[in-house]
Amino acid sequence: MEKQALNKTAADIQMVVFDIDGVFTDGRIWINHQGEETKSFHVRDGHGVRMLIHYGVQVAVLSGRESKAVNARMQELGVTDVLQGHIDKRSAFTELVNSKNLAPKQVAFVGDDIIDVPAMQLAGLSVAVADAHEWVKSHADHITQESGGHGAVREVCELILDSKGLLTKALNYNVTS
């Protein structure tokens, strides 16, 4: 999608739905000797999410897996729509959008792997992270410069805020992450 069309589409976004593994994280899963899972989240991505929420853009996560670490991090960021264990992302995305009384064109979806494509196809703005599977990239309206777990979430947050004319204000506002 060309920059002008991208900005016009992004300006209409009222909610951003992010996958977790490979988008908020680098896709690696750490399991300790007791079988407990841990994840690594980038603090700048968290700040981006807080900026979106602060400026009235809803944020949700939609993951095929379930993780206590995701619950903890999203609670910390103020994300209340945390949908985990949804292999059928098309149905979960549709239910979420309908529950918020939004049209799919008002929602962006950010993903990295083939399980994300059905939701991406419904979204008004589909985004793939830089290190997404090539087939996923071929279905995206936009591909981030940053990889999953390394600033891709923040990049999407800033894209949405910039398209709404709010980025400079957001960057100058002291929000903690």
What does this 3D model show about the protein?
The structure is a single chain. This protein is an alpha/beta fold. It has a single domain (3-172), classed as Rossmann fold (3-Layer(aba) Sandwich), CATH 3.40.50. The protein has helices spanning 3-11, 43-54, 68-77, 89-99, 117-122, 134-137, 152-163, 167-172; strands at residues 15-18, 30-31, 37-38, 58-62, 81-83, 107-111, 125-128, 142-143. The strands form two sheets. The chain has a six-stranded parallel beta sheet, sandwiched between helices. The protein has a two-stranded antiparallel ribbon with strand order 2-3. Helix 1 packs across helix 7 (152-163).
Low-confidence stretches: none
CATH hierarchy: architecture: 3-Layer(aba) Sandwich
Biggest sheet: strand arrangement: 5-4-1-6-7-8
Please give the domain count.
1
How many β strands by DSSP?
8
The level of helicity is 25-40%
Mean pLDDT, all residues: 95
Radius of gyration, CA atoms, in whole angstroms: 15 Å
Largest sheet features: 6 strands, parallel
What is the 3D shape? globular
What structural class do helix, strand and pairing data support? alpha/beta
Q: What is the string of SSEs from the N terminus onward?
A: HEEEHEHEHEHEHEHH
Put simply, the count of helices is 8
